[in-house]
Design a protein that fits this description.
Number of strands: 7
Number of domains: 1
Shape: globular
CATH architecture: 3-Layer(aba) Sandwich
Strand content: 15-25%
Strand order of the largest sheet: 3-2-1-4-5-6-7
Length: 214
């Protein structure tokens, strides 16, 4: 198996998804902004008996993200599945954030996913198979979370565009829209959410979904 790439592999959904795919025998490349985060994630994955490659990159830095993806591909090949889970999550209201902060937030929440897709989906399409999954949220806009509402709306549109571009070539593009605050032991337990990613990855093509809500 070529393995899984998890962008945004910190505690919570990212680590839970990495562990879920590792339990199925897939080697995992783990990307996050800090070495401490990815090393901790790799330590949590390796006991499951698969290779775990820690890589650092800021998802808003196109060159750094592409370099990390190239390293992962050199180690494991074109990924079977890429999960984009990076996000800036913070409360802000209309007019509260200056434009540079909005631009950075959008770069992480949406444009990093676009960079990752542009860098990996063509190779998946050439192979005729692959899965590209994005963590969504905010099924309804919230005026207390303006930047996040804009970002998750952008994610939904991006997934639609990627599906149109790469779906016919065998790449399953979808989003898992998380509708509440992620915490163990709640309705939004990260391990339960991670099962959604695995189910999307293993869906027969005739049953592909583009969005699931959790």
């Amino acid at each position: 198996m070529a393995g899984a790439v998890i962008i945004g592999a910190g505690p919570g959904i990212g680590l839970a998804v990495a562990r879920r795919f590792a339990r199925e025998g897939l080697p995992v490349a783990l990307l996050a902004r800090t070495q401490e985060t990815v090393e901790s994630a790799a330590e949590a994955v390796r006991p499951l008996g698969v290779p775990a490659l820690p890589l650092t990159a800021d998802s808003s830095d196109e060159a750094a993200l592409c370099a990390a993806l190239d390293t992962a591909a050199a180690e494991f090949g074109v990924p079977d599945v890429l999960v984009y889970n990076a996000a800036v999550i913070r409360p802000d209201t209309v007019g509260e954030l200056p434009l540079p902060d909005h631009l950075h937030t959008y770069a992480v929440n949406v444009l990093g996913a676009l960079t990752a897709a542009a860098h990996t989906a063509p190779a998946m399409a050439a192979r005729g198979a692959g899965t590209f999954l994005v963590t969504g949220g905010m099924p309804e806009p919230d005026p207390a979370y303006v930047s996040l509402s804009l970002g998750k709306a952008g994610v939904r549109s991006l997934v639609s565009l990627l599906d149109l571009e790469y779906g016919p070539s065998g790449v399953h593009v979808a989003t898992v829209t998380v509708t509440g605050a992620v915490a163990p032991g709640t309705a939004w337990d990260p391990d339960d959410i991670a099962d959604r990613y695995w189910r999307l990855h293993t869906q027969p093509r005739t049953e592909w979904e583009r969005e699931v809500l959790h």
